[in-house]
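During data preparation, we tokenized the protein backbone, and the record follows.
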Amino acid sequence: MPSQKSSTGLPLVPQFFERFIFNFAEKRQQAPQQQQTIHRRQLYILPTRNGITYFFVLLLILLGAINYENSLGHMLTFLLGSMGFLGMIYTHQNLNQLKVKIGRAEPVFAGQSILFPIVISCKKNATHPNLKLLSESGQMSFAHLINSTETAIKLELTATQRGYISVGRIKLFSEYPLGLFHAWSWLKLDSRCLVYPAPDSHHYPLHFTKDNKQGSDHSDQHGVDDFAGIREYHTGDLPTYMAWKAIAKTGTLQTKLFTNDTAEKAWIDWTQTSETLDIEKRLSILCRMILDASDKNIMYGLKIPGTTLSPSSGLQHKQQCLKALALFGQKT
């Protein structure tokens, strides 16, 4: 695997000249879109370290053949030289006219890896081996288009912060077949991924409220003996509601839920976190509380500055709450 320092890293090119090449290529780049076709105007090629060594050796052989008037030396030089230039054409054509399409990445938590689905295709069955995709963060993916019209891969990108993260600039390159030339194209693909705050490693108690329907008290409500499920034990639960059979099986304290108990709701509130903590830490704690409430099938609501989500449950509600945390204080 070649060493690449970034998605603009080029072999044997000084940094100042690399910036010149990139600025030149940026003016010829297409606007960001979900699918992009690589044309010759967006395709570049340079010799690799092996390529320069290869042609330097050929030059030495040619000088020796001229000095000693050796026809076999001339023949060897021109044969190997033509093979090198033929390899350059194949390297260039390995990327020419390829179509690259990006899909939507599933939301992740900060610190996890985003996997952007990418499809590389061509007009007809062809062979385009050893294709490499490099993200701006330096992660590389490999693809091979062998006697087919398309292939699918995942481009990995590390989620370093919450909010929407764009896929950024992608470098598609190849050194097939001889490794003497490095052909590449920079792609601007239109896709982004929602990144939730990283959940805190510690678990925190949930704050419950009782939903009294139209002011009626507990004794006036019907169906107190209707079993509704089991949840984790909370401090203050009556011993008569303990789920002893479930406790015996799992070894953890659990409480039976009845119809009236299901009216119990949890509020996950910004004010439940300490003001001495920074914003990211407070969001991390709230994220952990949301995940815990969701795992226990508890009705919960969210209150953060500027956003209030009514108590509910289910996957959609969980995603709405996590999205509110992810975009807190950011412009969408």
Summary: The chain has six helices and 16 strands. Residues 15-196 form one domain.
